[in-house]
Amino acid sequence: MEARVTTASVSSPKWSPAPEASDIVKGIHAMLHPRNIVLVGATDKPGNYAERIWNNLVKYKFGGGLFPINAKRQTIWGVTCYKDFASLPERPDHVLVLVPARFAVQVIRDAAAAGARSATIVTSGFSELQDEESQRLAVELREAIRETGLAVTGPNCLGNLSAGENLFTNIDDRIVTMEQGPVAIAGQSGAIVMAIRQALEDRGVGVGYMVTSGNEAGLETTDFMEYFVADPSIRVIVVYLEGVRDTRAFRNACKAARAASKPIIALKLGASEGGRAAAMAHTGALAGSIETFDAISTREGVIRARGLDELIETTECFVHAAPPMGDRLAAVTLSGGKRGLLIDAFHSAGLNFAPLSKHLSGELAKMLGPGSIVGNPLDAGFAAVVDPSVYMNSIKLMIDDLDTDVVIIDAELPKAPHELRERNLRIVNEMAGQASKPVIYISAMSIGFTEFTKGLRKSLPNIAVMQGMDRAVGAIKSLIDYARLRKEVPDIVSSSKPSARAVLEKTLRSASGAALDEVASKKLLKAYGIPISKEAIATTAAEAARIAKQIGFPVVAKVVSADILHKSDIGGVVLNLNSAAEVKKAFNDITARVKRLKNKPRLDGILIAQQVKADLELVVGASLDAEMGPVVLFGTGGIDIELLKDVALAGAPVDAAEAAQLVGRTKAGIKIRGYRGKPPLHEASAVKALVGLSNLISDAGHRIASIDINPFLINARTGVAVDALIVLNNAAAKRAAEH
Q1: What is the residue-wise DSSP string for 147-215?
Q2: In this structure, is residue 455 part of a structural domain?
Q3: Which residues have CB under 8 Å from 325's CB, separation 6+?
Q4: What is the pLDDT of residues 438-463, one digit of tens each?
Q5: Which residues are 606's β-sheet partners?
Q6: pTM of the model
Q7: Residue 4 — very low, low, confident or very high, per pLDDT cuts 50/70/90?
Q8: How confident is residue 435, by pLDDT bands cut at 50, 70 and 90?
Q9: Residue 285 has pLDDT above 70, yes or no
Q10: 549 and 472 together in one domain
Q11: pLDDT computed for residue 533 by the predictor
Q12: Residues 384, 399: one domain?
């Protein structure tokens, strides 16, 4: 056979990146739309990856050239086999690396030198293994990719799909429909990404791109998100994330997707060890990577699925249903039992079927006849038995009514030809195509799609067809929530004053140990505008009594030691001190307790502080998440903080408006704003504390691990921080001090 193996005529891609597009977008475009593909490490050993990928490229008729390389073979798979890049009949473009790990780095360098623009490293044996040699190879590979500038996915991946090019550099031997559909998938796990693609195909949802990114030595999932945003053929982006390495790049990609009205549906793996390591303070323990991921990514328009089934339903929903104008739900069913299930399921998700408009109710009553019950959802079962046209007319009235935003139909697709049901489905599909609202079919349970069902489903592009009521309800709620998001949210930057940043730098330079003591912590908080209680440190009982008289009784006595993180646990806090004698006794008692501790913590003194009358105890905190960066926390505080977990999180920094939204997402916020006739509390102080704290954690970079203000006491007139703990990221703080 002639040297240049082609299986179809080469066609130019319909879209190319603009000249001003980023190098990442241009590199990925070269990878997914290559002129040719070179398989380095070609071997015809039965069942090996190289042969399976070659067979797929031939089977699906990739339009460019196909060139196998193996220095020991002259022919393979019935075609010419080349010994190296120099012997190829044309310059290599996309290179598939299938050689053992120890040879892969040199292949990347040689490919770039020969003019290749991109590569996929299928080979494993790098950072996923823990031995010294594999780790060394991983470092060398990253360096080679960086130096050559090659667009690389992998290593340890299973290949990619670009349907518009009939490109399938993947080992999967199941039948694939090469359809340039509106969905793009990317993720680190090849098996999971391939399973998502297969499930979507089974549901009749076209996948235009599928990328398995493996160890991500070069391109990361975030980079592919950026590319999918740029490609106009893609409307929904699906990602599987094991971790976020570059928070800024991830957030920028999410913002770009949101501005382009392209939802990102994400399946995120687990909580990170880094998040748990911050548990020296309450805030770190409550944050955790999943909660932090949600707090930051949801703001940017990401929809996180809790599992694969939910991901498939949500993708189906966003592909076939445009975000609605509002949350006014209307539904038609043929069963009273199904009607009840719909009401319960949507109520559990915080959505309800509002009463129908007078006009719609009147039209339905007229059609259903005297004595009929008109409600929402509408049970048209009995009337439809008498007059089958009632069912379709009810649906039409719901779709046409200006006071409904989402129309839900309780029905599933038939598994075999059924003239009446097929006709009704096609009529509804036509109605939905002319409507300005989503029309969604829901089956109460999951059903298998036959080949007939798949074909029928593809002929109904204007309606979403969802399976399993709970998953469908969750997807519809995500659709409504996404519609409520502003398309563009301006970046919020730290609003701290230079004087505050100066105090921060001085404090961190002089810090030692794992945490700042309470006095140093509060001095730093005060610099950032966070209100604190009147207080002073005493080193003798007599001094403690004098301070108490100056502040005014009652007062609180608290141990001051950077070695004691949770003072109440060792009896280091005494409340309700109303006389000098009580203050002296508390000073002596706390001192004695500290001296009896086995770890012999350093005692810097006893803090005598104003005892603030509080109507509510809050927690205000901040934490540096290992993946997502700085985050602030607000909620119900006190000793039951971990038990109640009434907290909400947001990425830092926040401004006053976002801080107020954070307060409003908690039960504590409901109490602050007046609950059951009680007067509102001083919300402005809590908002001020959140803004100041968010500026502090942002300004600190990676030098502060977590900040815990618990409790932050609030009443109708004021709010103050009465206890504070700042845990340091000592390694980062030390590096900053040295420079």
Answers
A1: HH--EEE-SS---EEEGGGTEE-S---S-------SEEEEES-HHHHHHHHHHHHHTT--EEEEEE-TT
A2: yes
A3: 405, 436, 437, 483
A4: 999 999 888 878 889 988 999 999 99
A5: 538, 559
A6: 0.86
A7: low
A8: very high
A9: no
A10: no
A11: 86
A12: yes
68 and 119 part of one domain = yes
Dist. CA 583–CA 713, nearest whole Å: 22
Band of the pLDDT at 382, cuts 50, 70, 90?
Answer: low
- What count of other Cβ atoms lies within 10 Å of the Cβ of residue 443? 17
Is residue 66 within 8 A of residue 53, CB to CB? The reply is no
Question: Does residue 561 sit in the same domain as residue 626?
Answer: no
CB neighbours of 320 closer than 8 A, spacing ≥ 6? 438, 461, 462, 463, 464, 465
Dig out the tokens for 453 from the structure.
Answer: 């069902």
The dihedral built from the CA positions of residue 513, 516, 517 and 523, taken in this order, carries a sign that is positive
Residue 639 tokens read as 């000793």
pLDDT 10s digits, 533-581: 888 999 999 999 999 999 999 999 999 987 887 788 899 999 999 999 9
Distance CA 409, CA 331 (A): 6
Task: Tell me, yes or no, whether 275 lies in a domain.
Answer: no
Residue 142's domain spans which residues?
23-269
Residues facing residue 211 across a β-bridge: 160, 186
Statement: residue 203 has pLDDT above 90: no
Q: Which helix (H) or strand (E) holds 701?
A: none
Q: Specify if 658 maps to a domain.
A: yes
Rg (CA), the chain: 31
Those residues whose C-beta lies under 8 Å from the C-beta of residue 580, and which sit 6 or more positions away, are 545, 548, 549
Query: Mind giving me the DSSP string for 576-626?
Result: EE-SHHHHHHHHHHHHHHHHH-TT-----EEEEEE----SEEEEEEEEEET
Q: What is the CATH number of the domain that holds 643?
A: 3.30.470.20
Tell me whether residue 158 is in a domain: yes
For residue 14, give the 3-state DSSP assignment. coil
pLDDT-derived band at 387, boundaries 50, 70, 90: confident
